[in-house]
Specification:
The chain contains no helices and eight strands. The chain has strands at 31-33, 44-46, 49-52, 58-61, 70-74, 79-86, 89-94, 100-104. Helices cover 0% and strands 35% of the residues. Strand 4 and strand 5 (70-74) form a beta hairpin. A four-stranded antiparallel β-sheet has the order 3-6-7-8, with no helix packed on it. Strands 1-2 form a two-stranded parallel sheet. It has a two-stranded antiparallel sheet with strand order 4-5. The chain is mainly beta and 110 residues long.
C-alpha cells in the first residue's frame, strides 16, 4: 500500500487507528474530501471544486499563518481540487493524490 492509498474494507474501533499521511490526505479536524466518508470521522465532507492555478503559478502552504511553511510551488495550470474557501484562502488537494494545503484565492483561475 502506498502512502496515498485510502484503506478499503470494514473499519472498526479494534486497535490503534491507521496513521494518515497528512500531507497527502484531504482531511482536517472539521472537514474531509467526500471520498473519505466512512474512512475518517469529521463533522463535514465536501465534494471538490476543480480549479486551475493561474499562469504565474502558486505557493501551496501548510497553513494560512504568516510563518507557514511552503509545501510545494505549483506551476501554472496545475489542477487544484478546492474543498474549502475562507478568508482569501482555498484549502484543498493538488490533483487526486498530491499534496494538501492552502493557496491564496488570487492564485486560482476563476
Amino acid at each position: 500500500m502506498t502512502a496515498t492509498t485510502i484503506p478499503a474494507g470494514q473499519l472498526s474501533l479494534a486497535g490503534p487507528s491507521e496513521k494518515l499521511d497528512a500531507p497527502h490526505w484531504p482531511v482536517r479536524g472539521d472537514l474531509a474530501h467526500v471520498r473519505l466518508a466512512g474512512k475518517v470521522f469529521v463533522p463535514h465532507y465536501a465534494a471538490p471544486m476543480e480549479r486551475r492555478v493561474v499562469a504565474a503559478g502558486g505557493a501551496l502552504m501548510t497553513s494560512v499563518k504568516p510563518d507557514a511553511d511552503l509545501r510545494e510551488q505549483l506551476a501554472g495550470g496545475t489542477l487544484f481540487n478546492v474543498l474549502d474557501i475562507a478568508g482569501g484562502w482555498a484549502w484543498g488537494q493538488v490533483g487526486e493524490d498530491g499534496f494538501v494545503g492552502y493557496l491564496r484565492l488570487e492564485e486560482l483561475a476563476p
